[in-house]
What does this fold into?
Amino acid sequence: MAKVPEMSADFARWYSEAFMEEGDIRDLRWKGIVNVTAKSTFSIKEIEVLTRLVFQGKTPASGRKGEDLNDTYNKLVSAISGNDPAFVPLQASRELQILAAVALSMVVKKAPDAAIAVTTASFNGTRMPELPFDLLGVAEDSLIELSRRMHIRDEFEELELSAPKLDFDINIEEDEVLPETEKWKTQIKDLHEATSKAIARVVEGQNRVVERLHNRMQLDEEELQMLWWLLGKHSRHLKMPFSKIDARMRPLAIAEELGRMTMVSPGPASVQAMLAKADVGDEQIKLEDAVNSMELSWAEAATDSEYVSPVTTPIHFALEQRAELGTEDKWQDGWSTLTGIKADLRLPSIKLAELFYREHLFINVG
It folds into this structure.
């Protein structure tokens, strides 16, 4: 069994101050966090549940009706508690919030979707959970670093494969002129196994190189398409220059087009500069005006995903609600109740566009 890493001094302090516990329970919770965050990849559902546990609101972490989150919720809650049979989630919401926040603070450093989820859930600081540390700051810094790492070009030495070594020696005694048939069979079997392992190592290395080259090609294509789009200053969907797009429509329309060109998450670190280059300004705009300005067919197409959520994708959720109700004045109350955000909230257009772009990546790129 792998050794549990030494407990973070920050976690030890946060947990002790919040729950007056410095013994076995704290150790168990730390072990749970380590186990939850140890893997390299995380599903959208896992990130959604963790985010909901942190941003506690009207939307249950176990899922609303029609959301397939309950199994993920049960597994995560059990694991993050250290598989403690005495842990009762309904009686430990604050503890769960802090445990999930600590887990997310570790996951955001390697999973773009997690970093995006924290930034979109906070909604420009509108929804800020009370935590012993700045989770939003950690997520925003991680997005910049993840994007920087994603765009580093590989050196040739990092892609070059070395010749595999065949781990096999013929096992025959010196005075043995003609080994027995069964012994030859054993030798051939061992040779086959050694060769298969060597080939497997070659294939694994080759697949690694192909994957990295494929990602590089995707990034190059992404950058090229964005460059021509910005130089042309013309909306492909609306079929008009950026400057002619209604100011209320521009944040969502431009962000959605930029999102469709993004092939690798978390996208470019310079996304705000790109949005500004596409004539998205910093004028204040009401959220409900931006949502209502889009055509119903556009709203339906933009929200065609099972991952639209009141927590991690509140703008997409607003579009979904408007498309389902088919009106401009009936979606606001229900949306505000579930999200905890006022529909008439004013945001700088460029910030609204960036949030919508991040949401698009979360539910469509991953």
Strands lie at 234-235, 240-241, 284-286, 346-348. The mean pLDDT is 90. The longest helix spans residues 181-232.
